[in-house]
């Protein structure tokens, strides 16, 4: 049997070929199929509604773009596509790519990223925690609505878990919430949310 190495892409090649395809992101030059499902999109959509209401009530100059890629490090071929991104509109004048394409390259342009956990949960709980912290994103939420993450991350017995990661220095402090618990966010202190509120009804 012969081994055929996976073709790697540069960020520019990825943007040209897959920049407007929400199914894919890039990690170290490797194309990642994020395999979105209907229930996954249901959770993301409901959560975006709650976040949007909290932003509006707080009168912040922030918004949730319909589509957005994050290029966290100039020296690596990585372009992340979080399920939800909250951007600070006042910072976008400094984003060199934003006028031509929805790509963010500066961490201070981002207030919050959210990943809704799917089959590649290891990336959400490990690598993205490091990447987003080093990029300086103040909050990162991991929404494991099916409780499929590893026991090392969500405990035992495994159950639906909502993890709020808040930046302290260059690392995140993490706080986990289960069903029925009110979720607290330093970024959005007026947020009214429980994990129950965003679960699929089917």
Question: What's a quick, concise take on this entry?
Answer:
With 202 residues, the protein is α+β, with helices and mostly antiparallel strands.
Topology, please?
Blueprint: H1 11-18, E1 24-27, E2 30-33, H2 38-58, E3 62-63, E4 69-70, E5 84-88, E6 103-104, E7 110-116, H3 121-134, E8 139-144, H4 151-154, E9 161-168, E10 171-177
Parallel strand pairs: 4-6, 7-8
Antiparallel strand pairs: 1-2, 3-5, 5-7, 8-9, 9-10
Structural commentary:
- There is one protein chain.
- This protein is of the alpha+beta class and 202 residues long.
- The chain has a single domain (38-68, 82-198), classed as Alpha-Beta Complex (tt1808, chain A).
- Helices cover 23% and strands 23% of the residues.
- It has 4 helices and 10 strands.
- It has helices at 11-18, 38-58, 121-134, 151-154; strands at 24-27, 30-33, 62-63, 69-70, 84-88, 103-104, 110-116, 139-144, 161-168, 171-177.
- The strands form 3 sheets. A 6-stranded mixed beta sheet has the order 3-5-7-8-9-10. The chain has a two-stranded antiparallel ribbon with strand order 1-2.
- The protein is globular and about 45 Å long.
- It starts with 10 loop residues before the first helix and ends in a 25-residue tail after the last strand.
- This is Putative restriction endonuclease domain-containing protein.
